[in-house]
Specification:
By secondary structure, this protein is an alpha+beta fold. Helix content is 44%, strand content 23%. The two termini are 52 Å apart.
Length: 295
């Protein structure tokens, strides 16, 4: 049986790309296809070297693990060691599922022209079978992980956020609110609602302690100079909630909002802060509400 190196290289490249793409989609990573292609090419070249047996060291388990780490790092650029191991674990899991689907199809069709060397299955028909297995695995894994990840645990309902407003930063715990679809009506900008007392270090108390008056158009409690600085920055945000169908929040645009999780930190600049004049909880377990779309 004749084996063409260029065909093996291309088929391994495509297989690796599908596995990395599936891993990235499950991780909800921002996919950069050029990085996935480069990482896939590295894995495909390794397969050729391992098959030809030019260097025996290429068959060692340690080198395979190191290569996996390099491939994951190139594809997803994890920001810390914990994120790297999480990405690597899911990469292995995805590879095992893809491999299982491929082995199952090979077992079912029982092709005759099949060769195994240095851990690689080679042949004309079997490789097409492996590709079909990859497509089947892709179709199974994405909806399966989507259903699992949609069941958010209590721990995942909270995250730390950092707000920079008027050149000052504050940090607090926010709760993910799946029902919070609040947006500023003119620009359609997402709104994160925070307790007014949280902003005492960033905004004048004369504004924060008289929110209802300002919404109603009464600015008597605000010094005239302060009015000039803030009136143009403040926004009115209509909302509806249980017991209050036509409510109104006062909002202001910060320099940025940073969402901090165990895996990463992400800065969002297209955000409006909605100022709530009460407390969300009696014990202060969290002091902000944000829509899950911001995660």
């Amino acid at each position: 049986m004749t084996i063409y190196i260029d065909v093996v290289l291309m088929e391994n490249l495509i297989m690796n790309y599908i596995i990395l793409l599936t891993t990235g989609l499950i991780l909800k990573q921002k996919i950069k296809h050029i990085k996935l292609i480069f990482a896939s090419l590295l894995g495909a070249i390794y397969s050729i070297v391992a098959y030809t047996g030019v260097l025996e060291v290429y068959s060692s388990v340690v080198l395979k693990i190191i290569l996996s780490i390099i491939i994951v790092y190139i594809a997803f650029n994890p920001q810390n060691v914990k994120k790297l191991w999480k990405d690597l674990l899911l990469f292995y899991l995805t590879s095992f599922v893809f491999g299982g689907a491929a082995f199952a199809l090979i077992y079912i069709v029982k092709p005759q022209d099949i060769l195994m060397k240095n851990g690689l299955f080679l042949g004309t028909y079997p490789l097409k079978t492996v590709m079909l297995g990859a497509i089947i695995a892709f179709a199974i894994m994405i909806p399966a992980f989507t259903m699992v990840k949609s069941k958010i645990s209590k721990k995942d309902m909270f995250c730390e956020i950092e707000i920079k407003l008027n050149h000052k930063t504050i940090q607090t715990k926010a709760m993910m609110d799946t029902g919070n679809m609040l947006k500023e009506p003119i620009t359609n900008t997402p709104v994160v609602v925070v307790e007014h007392t949280l902003l005492y270090e960033c905004m004048p108390k004369e504004i924060l302690n008289h929110l209802e008056n300002i919404i109603g158009g009464d600015f008597e409690n605000i010094p005239e100079k302060m009015r000039e600085d803030y009136i143009s920055k403040l926004k009115l945000i209509p909302f509806s909630s249980l017991g209050k169908q036509n409510g109104m929040l006062l909002g202001i645009k910060p320099e940025y909002l940073k969402v901090i999780t165990e895996e990463q930190e992400e800065i969002k600049k297209n955000i409006i802060i909605g100022i709530y004049n009460k407390s969300f909880t009696k014990k202060g377990e969290y002091r902000a509400l944000m829509g899950i779309e911001l995660m």
